[in-house]
Amino acid sequence: LQWILGPKALGMFPARGLELKVNELAIPDGASVEVYKGMAAVESKLLDELDSKCDAGMTYSDEGEGGMLIVMDTPPLLPTPPDEDPCDLECLKGQGLRAALSAPGCMDNFDPPPPMQGSGGAMGSGDEPMVTMAGACEEPMEGGLAGCELDDGMCMSPKCKLAEIRWENITAMARVGKAATGGLGMKAEKRFREEFGVWACLRDWDVDEQIACSVRPGELACFKFEEVKREFVFMGLNKDVKLVKPEMQMEMAMMERLTIHALPPIED
């Protein structure tokens, strides 16, 4: 069982955790079920060892590791005593565990921490202003999720953004088939402090930013450009927002192939 987590691990937008609740446990005598955080069965990652049906009902978290591992350890098969019925195929099918898997987001199970006490002794009554801490939002060991960010008292998913890309970069990428641009048309937006009129879709631009946006190699990610703050706002993958039409994608692929062929060969 595993869940790709981001952006610190393999990348997921928005950030997600992994919780496993063991509802039923039916294992033979001498068997046990080990629950690990992460993807390795090492002692430091062991969350619990279950060896009785009375252990059912517990809930476990990956604690920001990006996955969970369940190992069932059964004793070697021994000849069945004459006075006992052997465990046939139907009996074996009834053994194991029944569990529920969930993927909580940044706002799930997040309680903003209470204000810290000021220098005057009472909550906020001193000369120093009240302050709050990130608490469980960003700290997996405190029940939070890796990749979440505390923003104005709210636990939010990290923003998918283009911090390293400017319009001139997109123009250059478009010449080699790695980007496309256009107008939003009827979807254009104009408000008091923000204005959106154009979009840009690009791929393979920056590894770290792609991980934060959960964009795989070769996938087109689309952004709309905010004219006032001069920043890009993530809209989604092109396969979902459908800004770049299939015929344009074919032209982009052809341009990239021509660019690659035009490059001088790499000498040994």
Report helical residue fraction: 10-25%
List low-pLDDT spans: 1-11, 115-134
Q: Into which percentage range does the β-strand content fall?
A: 25-35%
Number of helices: 5
Rounded mean pLDDT score: 76
SS content category:
alpha+beta
From N to C, what is the helix and strand string?
EEEEEHEEEHEEEHEEHH
User: Termini separation (Å)?
Assistant: 44 Å
Largest sheet properties: 5 strands, antiparallel
Question: What is the total tally of β strands?
Answer: 13
Question: What's the quick description here?
Answer:
This protein is α+β, with helices and mostly antiparallel strands. It is built from 5 helices and 13 strands.
Features:
single chain; 268 residues; alpha+beta; five-stranded antiparallel β-sheet; three-stranded antiparallel β-sheet; 13 strands; elongated; disordered N terminus
